[in-house]
Amino acid sequence: MSDKFFFKGRKTPKPKYGESGYNTKRVAKAGTETNPLQLIVTDENRAQQIQALLEQHQLIGKIIIDAEKAEDIRQLDVIINKPSTTLVAAKPNRNEPCPCGSGNKYKKCCGAN
């Protein structure tokens, strides 16, 4: 006989409150002590330039000097050149003064088009 007639409550216990919404497996931010940037450069002079960039942006990175490999600083470029949100000016409401400076309401001047 199945226990569905006699069992009251949940068969599987509800997860605890603190564990349900918290992501414990998220990736650490790149450029910190726990996850330093891995950068490859070809010579010592370029390594000093990259180190200056890291200090300027308060990042931590491991710079490897290897003349045999091609330069690889993509991780640094991604963090420094992060795209920004484009802001667009709001269109004036119908009854506000027209931005062209005519003194008329927007609906009578430029909004009539």
Key features?
single chain; 113 residues; alpha+beta; two-stranded parallel sheet; 2 strands; 21% helix; flat
What is the helix tally? 3
Poorly predicted parts: none
Rg computed from alpha carbons, rounded to a whole number of angstroms: 30 Å
Strand content: 5-15%
In total, the number of strands is 2
**Residues in helix, %:** 10-25%
- Write down the overall geometry: flat
Can you give the mean pLDDT? 84
Q: What can be said about the biggest beta sheet? A: 2 strands, parallel
Structural class: alpha+beta
End-to-end Cα distance, whole Å, is 77 Å
Question: Could you spell the SSE succession in H and E letters?
Answer: HEHEH
Oligomerization: single chain
Enumerate the strands of the largest sheet in spatial order, edge to edge or round the barrel: 1-2
Summarize the structure in short.
With 113 residues, the chain is α+β, with helices and mostly antiparallel strands. The protein is 21% helix and 9% strand.
Question: What order do the helices and strands come in, and which of them pair?
Answer:
Blueprint: H1 17-20, E1 37-41, H2 44-56, E2 61-65, H3 74-80
Parallel strand pairs: 1-2
Written overview of the protein:
The chain is α+β, with helices and mostly antiparallel strands and 113 residues long. It contains three helices and two strands. The chain has helices at 17-20, 44-56, 74-80, and strands spanning 37-41, 61-65. The chain has a two-stranded parallel ribbon. Strand 1, helix 2 (44-56) and strand 2 (61-65) form a beta-alpha-beta unit.
